[in-house]
# Entry
Amino acid sequence: MSAYIVVEIDIHDPDTYERYKALAPASIAQYGGRYLVRGGTTRPLEGDWHPPRFVILEFPDATQAHAWWESEEYAPAKALRHLSARTQMLLVEGLDAPPEA
# Structure
């Protein structure tokens, strides 16, 4: 079952964050992941949630997603993210099968 990493990002050092953005995609792909959302415009439909930046990653399963997050390949990019932004990150498991209409 697919798994998703959902991230709210508040960038306080844009130059360092640009270096993060250049490094992260290679490690994500190495673990079978891909971007579904990467910083597009957000608009609240309910409530008052206004994430400054929002990212959703898809991985083949939760094991691969967690392995990426803990990996040596991602470690240098993760360090840059920690230096340049405050993040909230969740690992969410997807559905076994598409929901019935």
Summary: The chain has a mean pLDDT of 94. Residues 5 and 89 are 7 Å apart (CA to CA). DSSP finds three helices and four strands in the chain. The chain has one domain: 3-41+52-93.
